[in-house]
Amino acid sequence: MARNYSSEESDVRFYEYDTEALVAIGTIVRAFADIDSFLPIYIANLIDADPSKVAIILGRAAISAKIECAGHLAGIKSEKAKGKHNLVFNKKFHDLLRCRNDVAHGELIGINESDQICFATTEYIKNNESTPHFTIAA
Asked: Would you say the C-alpha torsion 24, 28, 29, 30 has a positive or negative sign?
């Protein structure tokens, strides 16, 4: 579910979610909530710590920050642990996470001529996190 960008102008028309789209969105959002709940346990296992204490330390950190933290800890633990981490949290996973973020935090603006659901999202450019850039994700 990669995001699509185009410099070409596109016609976006009204779209109302149908049952299939709502089920797909609900499945993605719920799956990432489960992954987010699992990450403190994963991190605790990497450092042989109590999962409840790790959960308190991580607090409400973004899922991407938890994954980044886990990646660093996996690298410290062993090359094998880092390899397994990278196998799970690969480009496809991150593409789907961005899709989830677009759906969960973006604003539905319609559907384009390719029948892709479009969301207005705000992104920040690395090294300039104070300046939002508005994008359309399809």
From this structure: positive
8 A C-beta contact, residue 82 and residue 93:
no
Query: Which of 46, 53, 99 lies closest to 68 in space, CA to CA?
Result: 46
Token pair of 44, please?
Answer: 């605790």
Q: Report the alpha-carbon distance of residue 110 to residue 100 in Å, rounded.
A: 17
Residue 32 clears pLDDT 80, i.e. is over it = yes
Cα distance between residue 3 and residue 33, in whole Å: 21
What is the rounded end-to-end Cα distance, in angstroms, of the chain?
A: 10
Say what angle helices 91-105 and 19-47 make with each other, to 10 degrees.
Answer: 120
Rounded distance between C-alpha atoms, residue 118 and residue 135, angstroms: 10
Reported as a single tens digit per residue, the pLDDT across 116-138 is: 888 888 766 565 555 555 566 66
Among 100, 118, 98, CA closest to 109: 118
**HSE-up of 3 (CA within 13 Å, CB side)?**
21
Q: 10 Å Cβ neighbour count for 124?
A: 11
Q: Beta partners for 108?
A: 119
Buried b (16+ CB within 10 A) or exposed e, 16-45: eeeeeeeeebeebeeebeebbeebbebbbe
